[in-house]
Design goal:
The chain is an alpha/beta fold. The chain is 50% helix and 14% strand. It has seven helices and five strands; from the N terminus they run E-H-E-H-E-H-E-H-E-H-H-H. Strands 2-1-3-4-5 form a five-stranded parallel beta sheet, with helices on both faces. Strand 1, helix 1 and strand 2 form a beta-alpha-beta unit. Helix 1 packs parallel to helix 5.
Length: 173
């Protein structure tokens, strides 16, 4: 690999990968190398401790941690690393991710975990990019361009809506 990974994307189970792939895709879109790993807080606690405690020594700058159910991974990793941690609550079968959200967002004072919406790994990737961009002017410009493209997309949709009217617009969606 030509560039060392700057973002660590971890998940408690391989079943979280379909959600977490959106964070990976964002890193790829912005040209940021990332490492992806399955690190279970409950089934491989020693691996989790080692990962969290050594990530900064390996050059990782931000960790994105996705977890479902009890969702202890983001908080436990945050308690073990000096790096910023972004938690992604993964939707669960029985509680639709509310259990994950509450487990991640309700961290005690002193151990923060930035938390995105349930299943919104894309925003976790974008937040990681913005954190990195705060010290990288070239990356900051890419973020600005990304935002301009979002705004342009909305304006184009509005123009199409005005041209077609809402019924025809809906038919084309």
């Amino acid at each position: 690999m030509s560039n060392p990974p700057l973002v660590g994307i971890i998940m408690g189970s391989d079943s979280d990968l379909p959600t977490m792939r959106d964070a990976i895709a964002v890193c790829e879109e912005f040209g940021i190398a990332c490492e992806v790993a399955i690190v279970s807080a409950h089934r491989t606690p020693e691996r989790m401790v080692n990962y969290a405690q050594t990530a900064h020594q390996r050059g990782i700058k931000v960790i994105i941690a996705g977890a479902g159910g009890a969702a202890h991974l983001p908080g436990m990793v945050a308690s073990l690393t000096p790096l910023p941690v972004i938690g992604v609550p993964v939707s669960s079968r029985h509680l639709q991710g509310l259990d994950s959200l509450y487990s991640i967002v309700q961290m005690p004072a002193g151990i923060p975990v930035a938390t995105v919406a349930i299943g919104n790994a894309k925003n976790s990737g974008l937040l990681a990019v913005q954190i990195l961009a705060s010290h990288n002017p070239e990356l900051l410009e890419k973020v600005r361009q990304y935002r301009q493209n979002l705004a342009q997309s909305v304006l184009e949709k509005q123009a199409k809506l005005e041209q077609l009217g809402y019924k025809q617009y809906l038919e084309q969606m």
